[in-house]
Amino acid sequence: MLFVYSLIVFYGCYFIRANFFVKALCSGNTDEKEVAISFDDGPAKNYTIEVLQVLKQHNIKAAFFCIGSRVSDNKDLLKRVHEEGHLIGNHSFTHSAWFDLFSHKRMSEELAMTDEAIKSITGCKPRLFRPPYGVTNPNVKKATINGSYIPVGWSVRSYDTVIKNEKKLLRRVTNNVKPGDIFLFHDTVKTTLNILPTFIQHLQQKGYNIVRLDKLLDINAYD
Fold first, then answer.
1. CA distance 213 to 207
2. Domain tally for the chain?
3. Domain membership of residue 98 as a residue range
4. 16 lies in a domain?
5. Whole-angstrom distance, CA of residue 38 vs CA of residue 183
6. How distant, in Å, are the alpha carbons of 20, 65, 108 from that of 89?
7. Which of 83, 118, 161, 174 is the most exposed, having the fewest neighbouring CB atoms within 10 Å of its CB?
């Protein structure tokens, strides 16, 4: 029984769609052929600028869940993300590999620091928070509640930080697309940049409209 319980807790921690500790929005509630694209871990000199260029060419608005320390190091880049009409969300300040072991107080401090970094550049305070690695636990829940954040996950995880074969990555993200899907990519991965135009064209050819995440979820992105 202890082993089974441990497996359940592990699944609940590491799969955000399980809604075990935190109820996260992982897809849109719609029958319309609408989906949203999101990027984690930027802004970064490689390859956020190039991703923005592709999105602009196709008139697509995406969501960028940003790491606070990278925001501080790339202020002009974050300003461009905002000015080009993309949504900006909170993805912690350090994105530490040990984030899930932090106290809820330290988590809250990280989120507040990221909010301040983003607001100082855009004038907007994010409401949307995506936990690093999608890991949730009771401390993440407390920090989320304390900051009045809306936790956001995904329905299609690209695993683009692991899959380096372009054909394999494209096949993974285009297989069995459904209305309301939220796609998780990283704007720090060249393979993602390389397949992005083809991915967008594939969705559009299938009749899908790529909308901004807050529109798909019907929520306000900022306080």
1. 18
2. 1
3. 27-217
4. no
5. 6
6. 22, 4, 15
7. 83
**Residue 37 bridge partners (DSSP):** 183
Instruction: Assign 3-class secondary structure to 149-198.
Output: CEEECCCEECCCCCCCCHHHHHHHHHCCCCCCEEEEEECCCHHHHHHHHH
Q: Measuring CA to CA, which residue among 63, 83, 18 is closest to residue 219?
A: 63
Answer yes or no: 40 catalytic: yes
The single residue of 86, 91, 95, 186 carrying the catalytic annotation is 186
**17 band by pLDDT with thresholds 50, 70 and 90:** confident
Domain assignment of residue 87, yes or no? yes
Q: Look at the block and give the residue holding tokens 């000199």.
A: 45
pLDDT 10s digits, 136-173: 999 999 999 999 999 999 999 999 999 999 999 999 99
Average pLDDT estimate for 75-99: 97
CATH number reported for the structural domain that contains residue 195 in this entry: 3.20.20.370
Is residue 2 in a domain? no
154 found inside a domain: yes
Residue 86 is a catalytic residue = no
pLDDT at 6 over 60: no
